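Researcher: Go.
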Amino acid sequence: MPETKIALLPDRGAVAVTGEDAEKLLQGTITNDMALLASQPALHAGLLTPQGKILFSFFVVKTPDGFLLETARDSTRGLTERLGMYKLRANAEVEDVSSDYSVAAIWGGPYEPHGRGKQPIWFADPRLPEMGYRELVTIGSDWALAGDQANSATADEYHAHRISLGVPEAGRDYALGDTYPHEALFDQLAGVSFKKGCFVGQEVVARTQNRSMARKRVVPVVGETALPEPGSQILVGSVEVGRLGSVDDKRGLALIRLDRVVELTEKGETLMAGSVPVRIEIPGWAKFSLAQYASSPST
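Model: Structure:
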């Protein structure tokens, strides 16, 4: 039987959006379609600049009082303020509630929370089934975060799991404020709706989708030996084509100009992460391939 693991993620926090117009506020601003919450427990989404770059990345889950946005703890204040800017006269309240919750990731096997008192907020990770589950437990709750259903793991083990699947994380694999949704794989990991209509930055996202492929993507890289530290250059010959993000020994994620990689490697150049030769491994769940960059125009 698969071993279920659970890891506390102390770098994650939460923002609550409540009030009569909470859903309307989120529907008009975030990248995904709030209507999907009628048929699934959570959304993967982002809030963009008007120029279409990701300012915040988060999960959205419905609660009895409204909605909870699970995001990076160091982003909660900024996200609260940004949503407040768009609130205008809407009957909605936006509050940083990170101090009320512990956030955990669960993966590797079956799991169902158990305990007494106020139930935790628990949902399947909407990006990829293999990512497992997320759980937000109220501080001081009697609900167990492990018990006999899962083995305690570290945050590093969670990130190793994420890296093995090729799933990027904001701030580790791409820079907030300087990355487009397609580059961060929002189009591949159920992070953006192309049908719901307007949201902040929607025109740029739609243009990228309609023109062809994104030139840059976060992709898995595998080194011949252990990879260098995050932030190291990804080179083809003497040309920088990207930067290394999360690393777990020989495996990592990197934001890379794939069209340049294909062009230069076809000329016999070697792809390197610092001084380590690497290869790109596109995940099986991805709907793009390196071969497309040899034959199709880029945006």
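Model: The chain has two domains: 5-165, 214-295.
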